[in-house]
User: Fold this.
Amino acid sequence: MRRSRVVRVNEFATRSDHADWMVIDSELLRQKARDAAQNARRREIHFFHHGDDDVLHRMLNCLQPGTYIRPHRHLDPPKDESFLVIQGAIGFVTFDDRGNTSGDRFALIDPRKGFYGVDARAGVWHTFLALEPDTVVFEVKAGPYARASDKDFASWAPAEGTLTGVEWLMDLEDRFRSIWKMPSRGWDAQASPSPTKSAS
Assistant:
């Protein structure tokens, strides 16, 4: 099997340095799940594309419960986005332009239940929740990446790294679990996310 060296890009991400092809294996998933558990924001990205200018971006998004992904959309420039859950489970939630959401906008993505992924058109306000430890999502979207315009963050949702963001996440996940008749998260000092340095 052909594996690739993992190279640290920044405090939130790594990438593979393969020249032509590589295998995405369980060791890479385990390593990135460990990285996410140790990261203050409870998630990490692993890139497969060469750099920001690539026309197609492919990545693993590795998540631990309690990570807060501020609702956002990819509108200008418009970018469709696809998500496949490799392990664990996520709650995918969409919103209207005012930040309203409802039960028909709450999608449970869990391969063990026959729900494998989501495809979202450009301009859809969305977020997702890590419902299990060591959740890993494979994401694909168009490049290139420009930090200033990649995401249009929702003005009606709190910023990442704030106590308000933590409270917003807790409320959203409680609603999600209630709609899907899932056990309560049981928020407590151990289970609750902590405000962290903001990152996109």
